[in-house]
């Protein structure tokens, strides 16, 4: 068995390659590469090396303010550097220590910090969050050192250009697990993004559901006790879970902005209380002329905002208010004003989507202390909104909207163009001064418009992660970014950084070569290995096979399985194996499995090889023959999944479209697979038969190379 050794420090969980990255010992150290780039760097010579025990010293009087962030830092260090100990001490700092202090230094701007790396590490900031951002810089520096313990000496001064550096995620039309949201908090924090807007409700397009509102998909993702039928049945968050998510975000310097979108995008409310739907404009519109509508929506907001311990714990809440019927402009403006004031009555500040240019009218809408996501200039002209007095967050659809596989906006953002040309002061076709006081920052967004198109969390992350890196740079450094590195150099350097301690959502596996996992069951070293969490040892599964003249793994009871050191591998990959299944295998018999996906010998009732993930079920047009050895190879990338049988391409699941009655519109049928590797077989419903020569490569092999696999 050849695998990526688990003794490598946990930074490898970020999917980073061990690079030749190092600093000269005697020359002045150049500015290190981190994302976002440091504002200023004064290099020294030599390196600081972390000891096996690292002492954390804190300025007297600042401990209470700094400790929440320092604890988060220590938790991350313990994951990233499992061989080290970290101790908080009360004495003065000494060589080898990391020392935190808060100082009233006018040269340190808001969220800024000074990082001095000498015989000890000194972190100085005006406020605790600035000190925390310095720890993200330290973690990135450690990630890029081959030993994860050396940092170039020098002094950095760093601060953000924009206060809001954000990401908007539509969980209404596609459910994202709580784990995904928690991981994204940590990922965003790693790149100093600090604003996570969670779009909690939305619905699909009626034409894809037989033009029937009753059948059209809708979801509201939070537990609701006032209207229990409001909460989505196919995925939701309890109040406790959502509170804990916000608490985690606070510990990571990230603000969660919960969004309840009304009065459009509101089919989930109408399904819970049908009488509040608009018969004139469609049931995804609330009837804003019906007094019952305000009663219901008031109750929904109140449930999350009222009491001594509200569910929405932060100081800002987003009320949606976009894309309502233009004919109701005055009533819409009244509705918007009412909900700004209603949410403010609970002590919260309000955010909303820009719609007031679209909904022109005489009805006044509150401006003071209200922040607007300006997304499309036809709905809210940025200059007009700024002149009215709104603070704005630049969220331009033509630059920053990802709508996976929809055929409009972006499937993947044009990152080179963004890096070279965009900063938050550019909104649509309008450009403002970079230091304009009303432009608070920017956010990019993922909208899952096409419900049921097969896009998974892994697919969304494949699109969002490179955008995180580029937009973290642009929203921290603004126009200064492109003067630091060319885009091509930035993209090259960015590959050295992963997702943060313990995260590997992309499933990037690095080995000495492209073969990152290999089970050869005729190898005595393999059969003698005892695993902690498998049914018996591998040796219990291995038997001599006369047909092959060698040993192979025999899954004989339908529950036998092998737990591997990996949970899965992401795009791009090749998985090769020999299989000899028994005749009597049940439907859904499992070949490979993890929490993310299963690969099945018999997909549901088809009898054909297939895979399932996130309640999508696909199969190849191929049945694996029983009682004979067959060589199978599965390859996968961000476009689809391919099957090779005995060295020849059998089928490529890629580029399919779904058609619908009564409409010419189509949506994609995405058939990607983040290949599951946690188990060969499964704890339940494992296939019956034999496997041999399981090989996993972290690249897609050529057709010729696949022919030559054995």
Report what the structure shows.
With 710 residues, the chain is α/β, with parallel strands linked by helices. The protein has three domains: 19-158, Chitobiase/beta-hexosaminidase domain 2-like (Chitobiase, domain 2), CATH 3.30.379.10; 164-494, Glycosidases (TIM Barrel, Alpha-Beta Barrel); 515-707, Jelly Rolls, CATH 2.60.120. The protein has 16 helices and 41 strands. Helix 1 links the parallel strand 3 and strand 4 (85-89). The longest helix has 21 residues, at 457-477. It is globular. Residues 32-159 form the Beta-hexosaminidase bacterial type N-terminal domain. This is Family 20 glycosylhydrolase. Belongs to the glycosyl hydrolase 20 family.
The CATH class of the largest domain:
Alpha Beta
Distance between the first and last residues' Cα = 15 Å
For this structure, the CATH topology of the largest domain is TIM Barrel
Named at the architecture level, the CATH assignment of the largest domain is Alpha-Beta Barrel
**Radius of gyration using CA atoms only:** 27 Å
Q: Number of DSSP helices?
A: 16
Range of strand content: 25-35%
Describe the biggest sheet? 9 strands, antiparallel
Helical percent range?
A: 10-25%
Given the helix and strand composition, which structural class is it? alpha/beta
Number of separate strands: 41
Count of separate structural domains? 3
Mean pLDDT over the residues:
92
Low-confidence stretches: 1-25, 524-537
Mass-distribution shape: globular
CATH homologous superfamily heading of the largest domain: Glycosidases
């Amino acid at each position: 068995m050849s695998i990526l050794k688990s003794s490598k420090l946990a930074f490898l969980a970020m999917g980073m390659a061990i690079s030749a990255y190092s600093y000269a010992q005697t020359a002045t150290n150049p500015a290190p590469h981190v994302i976002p780039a440091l504002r200023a760097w004064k290099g020294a010579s030599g390196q600081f090396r972390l000891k096996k025990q690292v002492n954390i010293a804190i300025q007297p009087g600042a401990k209470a303010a700094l400790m929440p962030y320092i604890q988060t830092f220590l938790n991350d260090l313990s994951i990233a550097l499992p061989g080290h100990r970290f101790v908080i001490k009360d004495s003065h700092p000494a060589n080898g220590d990391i020392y935190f202090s808060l100082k009233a230094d006018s040269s340190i701007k808001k969220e800024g910090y000074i990082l001095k790396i000498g015989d000890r590490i000194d972190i100085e900031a005006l406020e605790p969050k600035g000190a925390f951002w310095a720890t993200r810089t330290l973690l990135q520096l450690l990630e890029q050192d081959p030993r994860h313990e050396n940092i170039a000496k020098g002094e950095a001064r760093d601060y953000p250009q924009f206060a809001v550096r954000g990401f908007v995620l539509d969980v209404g039309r596609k459910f994202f697990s709580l784990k995904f949201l928690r991981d994204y908090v940590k990922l965003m924090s790693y790149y100093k993004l600090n604003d996570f807007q969670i779009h909690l409700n939305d619905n699909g397009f009626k034409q894809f559901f037989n033009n029937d509102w009753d059948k059209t998909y809708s979801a509201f993702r939070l537990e609701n006790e006032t209207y229990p039928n409001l909460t989505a049945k196919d995925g939701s968050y309890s109040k406790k879970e959502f509170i804990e998510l916000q608490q985690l975000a606070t510990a990571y310097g990230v603000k969660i902005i919960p969004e309840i979108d009304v009065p459009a995008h509101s089919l989930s409310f109408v399904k819970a209380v049908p009488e509040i739907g608009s018969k004139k404009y469609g049931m995804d519109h609330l009837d804003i002329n019906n007094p019952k509508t305000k009663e219901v929506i008031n109750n929904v907001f109140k449930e999350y905002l009222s009491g001594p311990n509200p569910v929405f714990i932060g100081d800002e809440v987003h009320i949606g208010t976009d894309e309502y019927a233009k004919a109701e402009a005055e009533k819409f403006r009244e509705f918007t004003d009412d909900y700004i004031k209603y949410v403010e009555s609970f002590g919260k500040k309000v955010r909303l989507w820009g719609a007031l240019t679209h909904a022109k009218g005489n009805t006044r809408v509150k401006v003071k202390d209200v922040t607007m996501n300006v997304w499309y200039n036809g709905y809210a002209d940025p200059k007009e909104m700024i002149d009215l007095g709104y603070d704005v967050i630049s969220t331009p659809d033509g630059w920053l909207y990802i709508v996976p596989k929809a055929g409009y906006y972006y499937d993947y953002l044009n990152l080179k163009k963004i890096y070279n040309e965009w900063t938050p002061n550019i909104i649509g076709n309008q450009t403002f001064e970079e230091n304009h006081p009303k432009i608070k920052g920017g956010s990019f967004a993922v909208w899952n418009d096409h419900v049921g198109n097969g896009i998974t969390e892994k697919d969304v992350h494949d699109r969002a992660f490179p955008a995180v890196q580029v937009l973290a740079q642009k929203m921290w450094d603004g126009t200064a970014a492109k003067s630091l590195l060319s885009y091509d150099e930035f993209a090259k350097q960015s590959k050295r950084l992963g997702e943060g301690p313990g995260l590997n959502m992309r499933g990037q596996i690095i080995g000495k070569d492209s073969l990152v996992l290999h089970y050869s069951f005729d190898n005595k070293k393999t059969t003698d290995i005892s695993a902690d969490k498998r049914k018996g040892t591998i040796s219990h599964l291995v038997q001599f096979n006369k047909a092959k003249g060698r040993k192979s793994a025999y899954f004989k009871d339908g529950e036998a399985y092998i737990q591997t050191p990996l949970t899965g591998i992401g795009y791009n990959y090749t998985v090769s194996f020999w299989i000899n299944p028994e005749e009597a295998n049940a439907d859904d018999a499992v070949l490979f499995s993890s929490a993310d996906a299963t690969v099945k010998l018999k997909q549901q009732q088809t009898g054909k090889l297939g895979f399932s993930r996130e309640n999508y079920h696909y199969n190849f047009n191929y049945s694996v023959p029983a009682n004979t050895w067959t060589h199978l190879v599965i390859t996968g990338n961000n476009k689809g999944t391919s099957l090779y049988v005995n060295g020849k391409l059998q089928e490529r699941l890629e580029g399919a479209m779904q058609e619908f009655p009564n409409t010419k519109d189509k949506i994609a049928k995405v058939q990607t697979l983040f290949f599951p590797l946690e188990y060969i077989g499964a704890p339940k419903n494992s296939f019956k038969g034999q496997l041999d020569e399981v090989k996993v490569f972290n690249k897609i092999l050529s057709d010729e190379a696949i022919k030559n696999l054995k």
